């Protein structure tokens, strides 16, 4: 099978994606598959990388994908991928793209139009899961626990003061302020007073037109990995939870990616059997509520005082770096990194074939 791995992207998570893509390339079984690599520049252009880059990544376990802008790669709806006037024989794409224009349903829709199989969630799940407000609304509708919040949109500019008053009175300090559509803690701030809250709102609005203000819960951060397709075959596996113990004030971008001592990852999380069962049950329902397929990582808050669990967010293309929680949880459960990649590739092919078997016209 010919596999195209994509990294980079037009998002605040560009650099993280380059690391994820490199790790995936190193762990694909080249005895079974021919691997191609594509880099997406920060301005959104696609470039096919040559075999020398693939070899460099395989020989250097610390290297991230470097994007050479020599060979443009294009997509033709209904036809597939093309480079230098020739069709690229990609049987499936693994879009290791995090955040906007990669994890938000846009590129998944493009793959659907091009009739290209791809790993991961489909258009709807990717789009909804990227929007933290819409995710919360669907989870609330499904009677799942979420952290209380207030939404502020750029269009509400004349009402900012009133909405901040509402957040203060309903939620109380401290508060977290985050862009509704961003990942890896990009644009997130913690506010302990009105001045900090106003500054945090301004920072978050640089990244998105809609912002969530959430009650800051004094909590342990619990994460779990899920694979499977609840819509296609109902087969979902929720792996044992891990715990993030940040050494920063909260699990921000630096703690996740730039500071090697920024957080400790505890796998498995130290939870009793009943709490672990509760995490798995809520995670499965949350995954199903968004029609997820392929994979996702569910993030929880576990209130230190009350023991209550709250869904924080879902990542439909979680980090695949060597230190990322998603593959580490799977590995702890016995699913090695190479086997995980193989599973996701095969799942993407099955889902593509199932969708291709559906009727799209009344004419026969």
Write up what this structure looks like.
With 364 residues, this protein is of the alpha+beta class. 34% of the residues lie in helices and 26% in strands. It contains 11 helices and 17 strands. It has helices spanning 14-27, 51-59, 106-114, 123-130, 132-141, 160-171, 194-204, 253-258, 273-289, 325-332, 337-356; strands spanning 2-8, 34-40, 46-48, 71-76, 80-83, 86-87, 92-95, 149-153, 175-179, 189-191, 210-215, 219-229, 235-238, 242-246, 263-266, 293-303, 309-315. 45% of the residues are buried.
Helix and strand arrangement:
Elements: E1 2-8, H1 14-27, E2 34-40, E3 46-48, H2 51-59, E4 71-76, E5 80-83, E6 86-87, E7 92-95, H3 106-114, H4 123-130, H5 132-141, E8 149-153, H6 160-171, E9 175-179, E10 189-191, H7 194-204, E11 210-215, E12 219-229, E13 235-238, E14 242-246, H8 253-258, E15 263-266, H9 273-289, E16 293-303, E17 309-315, H10 325-332, H11 337-356
With strands numbered from the N-terminus, the spatial order across the biggest sheet is: 6-5-4-3-2-1-7
- 3D shape: globular
Q: If you average the pLDDT, what whole number results?
A: 92
The run of helices and strands is EHEEHEEEEHHHEHEEHEEEEHEHEEHH
Measured between the Cα atoms of the first and last residue, the distance is 31 Å
Approximate strand percentage = 25-35%
Number of helices: 11
How would you sum up the major sheet?
7 strands, mixed
Determine the structural class based on helices, strands and strand pairing: alpha+beta
C-alpha Rg (nearest Å): 21 Å
Query: What is the count of β-strands?
Result: 17
* Poorly predicted parts: none
Helical residues, percent: 25-40%
